[in-house]
Every structure is written in C-alpha cells, then in structure tokens.
C-alpha cells in the first residue's frame, strides 16, 4: 500500500510540474493560448497541488504507522 501511495504521489508531483511549466510557457509566449488557458492552467495546478499534498500527508502517515 505504501509503495502505491508513493508512486501515485510522484505522479501527482510530476503533474504539478508539467502544468506549471505549460502555464509559465504560455504566460511567457502570451497571445491567444495565454488569454484562453491561463486561468484554467492555474486552477488545474492548484487542484494537482492539493492532491499532491494530500498524498504526501497520507504517505507520511503510513510511514509513521509502519505501513500497516
């Protein structure tokens, strides 16, 4: 169980970095993409960050319980 949470947690953190990079790239380029998707990318990043934080807390909790 602990390993599964760890892998999903890493995936969530990767998703945060990916969405952040896309958002920064769109902001830097400007234009239609930024005008259309800037707010959506910010909301998606916040959602992924919340999921990642919850998974990190769950992982730490499971590690403290000895994985039982």
TrEMBL record:
- Keyword set for this entry? Membrane, Transmembrane, Transmembrane helix
Family annotation (InterPro entries): Hypoxia_induced_domain
Residues crossing the lipid bilayer are 6-30, 42-62
Q: Name one Pfam family in it.
A: HIG_1_N
> Would I find Transmembrane among this entry's keywords?
yes
**Cross-referenced NCBIfam families:** twin_helix
**By what name is this protein known?**
HIG1 domain-containing protein
Where does the source fall among the domains of life? Bacteria
Name all HIG1 domain ranges: 1-68
Q: What is the scientific name of the source organism?
A: Falsiruegeria litorea R37
The reply to whether Transmembrane figures as a keyword in the UniProt entry is yes
């Amino acid at each position: 169980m602990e390993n599964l949470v760890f892998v999903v947690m890493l995936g969530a953190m990767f998703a945060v970095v990916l969405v952040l990079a896309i958002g920064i790239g769109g902001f830097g380029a400007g234009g239609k993409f930024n005008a259309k998707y800037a707010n959506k990318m910010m909301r998606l990043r916040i959602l992924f960050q919340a999921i990642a934080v919850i998974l990190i807390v769950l992982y730490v909790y499971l590690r403290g319980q000895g994985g039982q």
